[in-house]
Please model this.
Amino acid sequence: METPQNAHSEAKVPATEAVIRVVTRIAALSAEAWNTLAGDSPFVQHAFLDALETSGCVDASLGWEPVHLALFRDGRLDAAMPLYVKHHSWGEFVFDWAWADAYRREGLAYYPKLVCCVPFSPVAGPRLLARSDEDRAALLTAAQTLTRDLGASSFHVLFPSEADHAALAASPLLHRTGFQFHWHASAEGDEARYASFDDFLAALTHDKRKKIRQERKKLANLGIRFRWVEGRQSSDADWDFFYRCYADTYARHRSEPHLNRAFFATLREKAPESLLLIIAERDNVPVACSFCMKDGRRLYGRHWGALEYVPGLHFETCYQQGIEYAIAQGLQVFEGGAQGEHKLARGLTPTPTHSWHWLENAEFRKAVDRFLERETDAIGHYIDELDGPFRHPPPPSTVGKT
Model:
C-alpha cells in the first residue's frame, strides 16, 4: 500500500477480489454508501466526520491526518474505516501517554501512530464498517500494512462496537478494557422502563434521591428553568450561546476549544436530527447550556458551559436533564461522557469500554500486554468496590470478562 500523500492509494485483497484505497478526505466518498455501512451512530455518520474536516477541526497541521480506508468491489464501497495518522494523543480518551514516555526514554519515537477512532468523541460505535468479518479482517490487515508503510509505531482501534469484537479478537491486536458511567432505562434487575423521572428517583438510595431533589428545588427557587431544543427547532442565537459557554469552559482551563463554531453550524445543517441543546435560563435569560447528540436508542452528553457559577447547575444541566429527556423520549441509555466517579451519585453506573492496540516493537508489545492484564484486573476490582446509587446493588462487574 502506498503512503497517504496520494489521495487514493490502492492495495489488492486477493481473498475478496477487492481493492482497498487510502482516502485523505471523507468528502471523496459517497455519503449514502458510507452511512449504509455506519448504521445510525451519529458520530460515525459521514456528516459528522466531514464536518470535522471541512471546518478545519481535523487536519494534518493539527496532528490529525485523515487516511480513511475504503474497500471497493466493482466500484462499490463495501467496507470502510475512519482512520488518522496522529502526532500526539490528545482527543482520544484512551490514554497511552505512559507508553509514549516509555518509548521516549528508550530513544524511540512513539509518534506518528495510526488511530481508528472518532476525533474528540469517547463514544462506542462501529469502527470496522463492514457487512462481514472477512471484510473487517481485511481492513485490519490493511491498517497494519499502512502502519509499517508509514513507519508508525503502532495502530489503535478505540471504542469499537460489539460487532467489531470478533474480528479484533481474531487479530494480533492487544485488548484493553476501561469503563465509563452510563444511565440505563431500567432499575437494576428490572426490565420495566421508568415511566417518569420520579420513577427513576424512587429506584435510588434514600440519600442520593434526597440530594437530587434538594438540588432541583434550590435551582427552581433561584428561578432556573430548562429548555430542550432539538436541532431542527434550534436558532442561530441558541448555537451562538452554546458556543460561548463551550469556549468559556476551555478558557477557564487556559485552553482552546477543539471544535470551532463552523463545525457546529455544519452539523446543524447536515444532521439536525441528531442534535439536542439543553439550555438553562433564569428569567428567560440563558445562563448555561449542554450539547448532546442522539440516535434512536441513546443520548450522548458531550459538552457544556455556564456563564456564571450556580451550585448544582452543572449536575442538573449535564446529567439530570439528560436522564429526564431520555425517559421522556423512550431512550434506553444516556452516556455521560468519559471519566467521572461523581456521576455514580446521579444514577449513572460503570459500563465497560474497549480498545485494541498493535505495537510494532515486539519488546514493547510484550510489556504492554503484561500491563493490560494487570490494568484489567485492577479496573474490575475497583468497579466491584464502588458504592452503587440504587437501592438494590448491581451484579459484580463484567469488565474484562467474556
